[in-house]
Amino acid sequence: MLEFEKVRKILIGSSRDPLNPDTRRHIVLVAFLAWIGLGADGLSSSCYGPEEAFLALGHHTHLGLYLALVTAITVFIISIAYNQVIELFPSGGGGYKVATQLIGPYAGLVSGSALIVDYMLTISISVASGIDALFSLFPASMLHLKLASEIFVLFVLILLNLRGMKESIQILMPIFLGFFLTHAFLISYGIWIHSERLSTLIPETLSETTEMSRNLGWVFIASLFLRAYSLGGGTYTGIEAVSNNVNMLVEPRVKTGKWTMFYMAASLSFTAAGIILLYLIWQVKPVEGQTLNAVAFQAIFSHLGLGTPFAQHAELAVVMALEAGLLLVAANTGFLGGPMVMANMAADSWVPRQFGQLSSRLVTQNGILMMGIAAFFILLWTKGQVSLLVVLYSINVFLTFSMSIFGLCLHWWRNRRGDKKWLPRFLLSLVGLCVTASILVVTTVEKFMEGGWMTILITLVVIAAFLLIHRHYEETRVQLRKVDDLYSGQKAMETEAPPPQLDPSLPTAVFLSGKNRGLGMHALLWVLRMFPGHFKNFIFVAVGEVDLQSYDGEGALRTLKYKIENSQRYYVNFCHQHGLAATTFEAYGTDPLEELFHLTEKIMKDYPLSICFASKLIFVHDNIFTRWLHNQTAVAMQRRLHLQGQQMVILPMKLDM
User: Fold this and answer.
1) Per-residue model confidence as pLDDT tens digits over 611-642
2) Is residue 205 assigned to a domain?
3) Side-chain-side CA neighbours of residue 326 (13 Å)
4) What is the CATH number for 531?
5) Do 551 and 452 fall within a single domain?
6) Do 375 and 453 fall into the same domain?
7) Partner of 42 for a Cys bridge, out of 190, 238, 286, 304, CB 3.0 to 4.6 A?
8) CATH number assigned to the domain comprising residue 434
9) What's phi and psi for 544, nearest 5 deg?
10) Same domain, yes or no, for 8 and 117?
11) Residue 619, pLDDT score
12) Among candidates 269, 263, 242, 237, which has minimal Cα distance to 254?
């Protein structure tokens, strides 16, 4: 066990104290680091989004000038719309919370489910396309190692994220900055060296467009352009990542989030629009076995004339390796955003509550593992085929975009009488909705038979599973409310009489009390009824679990402490009212079982004649599903105490669901 703990600390790192104010300051992100960690997914889309859009133009490449301009504008339209999301939801949650609170809970379910599937595919497609780019530099005889390499990289990314978000970002930072700086130089140089073409490009484009309209009609031009624009929609993926993860940012969150969004929008619009311009002014043509980016950059390196042809090929290999590296960094966005969405949905009982828990490293470990396992099976199923993954990936992105921006439209319309600035914000959101909805419709129609139906089917299956989970939690909540009502007659009041003193030498009942007051009273009254007059000391032990919701700032932690202390005070007052000596012990941490065990171990040393009691929910139709949805803390505690030679009794409370 000690050896395992040593290995775990080496791979993942030592535990962090969630109650130490310095801990949160250490793990939150400034705008620059957030741009790297959350902007990689958006920036990496410039590796394939502009190419997809440009190729869709066919022989009518002169329309690429309009495409470059509209691409840059679209990035800023969507980004500014998501700035509103950051303002309205500074605790994070992005598309899920927008849809839930501004449209309705079931809209939130659809948006959250689509986001989770999208982030799983983000990891899969980023890893697969990154390894594809790397293997394009190697001999064809090594292609059989590609899938194994993808799985190895996936495993490394899981470990990095289990260590913590900031650590993973700092390790991947050189790749991100290397990509951006090299591409910024190549785009700037490529446009500058052909700057004389820019002066003639606009009139030539207008002339060719006019001639084309005479021959083919404006309807054909509009249809062709809209199709190319929509099929290049992958360029805009990842923009929502900042709004999903605002709670990871340094205070003031809203300001940091807006700066992060600005960095992301500026870098993506410059890179994506600049690459389309490069295709246009360098007259790039498709070459078998090479991306358009590789063809354009190779031409630029040849023009630079730095070294021999072999040296130029090596320079190109470095740039393409950085593209591959950035795609791998982009996979990290899925490990940041996916678990965050799952944690927010867990707080609303759509997914199992374990996904809201934090590990000892203060990361959503269960969500990270779930995303990694899902990506692993997706890679095995698709064998890492990027062409198939792109189709699966393309629809859900714009489904969540459209739902979020539609929610903003509803919000500003409802608040039109109370907000003087509602009209420009409403119009901006409406324009964004038209953009994202049109891309969603065209992409769904174009890609449906190519595999888009599979994305829709997977998302519907996820939604159905979450509905079942939510139904179970709601039924359980109703039953527990009945339990609370049952014991509501047991009033605890402050008493003026001095409370009895505890005597460690006398029999002691130790109660593991949880959030639900009815369960605690069930255990206390059962002991008083079955052992009348036997126990002289009554000790109530509670652990406040520091999960993602309660670690959302110092205010959330204070609220958690207040709830625990208020609940504990109720039990003590009840005991004192009935002449019973009682006290409480509390602890706070990310692992309730570990904290409970340490507390009870200490109590049982101080009170040697003690027995632990805990209530446990028993369902009429008990199965693996119900056991998975509810923690088994009582059973685990009983086992650990029994191994220590201590006594613990579990008191069943049957719920008829």
Assistant:
1) 999 988 888 777 777 777 887 788 889 999 99
2) yes
3) 27
4) 3.40.50.620
5) no
6) yes
7) 238
8) 1.20.1740.10
9) -85, 115
10) yes
11) 81
12) 242
Beta bridge partners of 539: 510, 583
Position 397 in a domain = yes
Tokens of 560: 């958690």
Q: Is 293 domain-assigned?
A: yes
Total domains present in the chain: 2
Helix (H) or strand (E) holding 653: strand 648-655
Q: Where is pLDDT greater, at 307 or 55? A: 55
Q: What is the largest CA-CA distance in the chain?
A: 101
Alpha helix locations (H) across 415-452? 422-447
Residue 168: per-residue pLDDT: 65
Residues in the chain: 657
Q: Are 476 and 435 in contact (CB under 8 A)?
A: no
Model confidence pLDDT, tens digit, residues 504-517: 999 999 999 877 78
Nearest to 268 by CA among 304, 297, 232: 232
Residue at which a domain ends, from 415, 433, 457: 457
The contacts of residue 245 (CB under 8 Å, 6+ apart) are 34, 38, 92, 94, 336, 337, 340
Tell whether 57 and 154 lie within a shared domain: yes
Residues 357 and 215 in one domain: yes
Rounded to the nearest 10 degrees, how much is the dihedral formed by the CA atoms of 323, 326, 330, 336?
A: 180
Q: Which residue type does 585 have?
A: F
- How many other β-carbons are positioned within 10 Å of the β-carbon of residue 573? 17
509: which strand partners?
A: 538, 611
Evaluate whether 102 touches 411 at the Cβ level (below 8 Å).
yes
Within a domain: residue 479?
A: no
Give the per-residue pLDDT at 218. 86
Residue type (1 letter), 611:
I
Residue 194 is part of which domain span? 2-457
Indicate if 435 and 570 belong to the same structural domain: no
> CA-to-CA distance for 634 and 512, rounded, in angstroms?
8
pLDDT digits (tens, 9 = 90+) for 564-610: 888 898 899 889 988 999 999 998 888 888 889 999 999 999 999 99
Residue (of 31, 77, 62, 405) closest to 235 by Cα position: 77
Output the CA–CA distances (angstroms, integers) from residue 582 to 77, 271, 529, in the order listed. Answer: 61, 67, 17
Burial of 468 (0-12, 13-18, 19+ CB in 10 A): exposed
Tens-digit pLDDT profile for residues 190-210: 888 887 777 788 888 888 888
End of a domain among 428, 457, 486? 457
Are the C-beta atoms of 537 and 502 separated by less than 8 Å? yes
- 3-state helix, strand and coil shares in percent for the chain, rounded to the nearest 5: 75, 5, 20
Nearest to 407 by CA among 88, 65, 49, 158: 88
Residue 86 corresponds to which tokens in the numbers above?
Answer: 């950051």
The pLDDT assigned to 488 comes to: 58
pLDDT band for position 376 (50/70/90)? very high
pLDDT at position 303, please? Answer: 81
Tokens of 221: 């031009």
Q: Who contacts 325 (Cβ-Cβ below 8 Å, separation ≥6)?
A: 130, 175, 178, 179
Nearest to 165 by CA among 376, 344, 333: 333
CB atoms within 10 A of CB 533: 7
Q: State the Cα–Cα distance between residues 354 and 351, nearest whole angstrom.
A: 8
| Average pLDDT in the chain | 83
Among the listed residues 631, 475, 464, the one whose alpha carbon sits nearest the alpha carbon of residue 547: 631
Based on the domain organization, do 259 and 407 belong to the same domain? Answer: yes
198 with 269, same domain: the answer is yes
pLDDT surpasses 60 at 657: no
